[in-house]
Amino acid sequence: MARMEMAARAATGEAPPLELHHAMHTLKASLLFHRGGWDDKETERVRKIIEGAAEAIARGGDHE
Question: Given a cut of 70, is residue 5 above it in pLDDT?
Fold first, then answer.
């Protein structure tokens, strides 16, 4: 559902702020240039980090 909501916002032209766009590219680069290989343990560790971040973003917050 969260991905559908994000797709709907994207379709309306609502883009994230430039700072978030930069952060997304930083994440992508860190995945592409990851050192140490992608064994099952490392893949699971990184997957949990990314999915945890996605869930936290989708939940929203108190805008600390």
Answer: yes
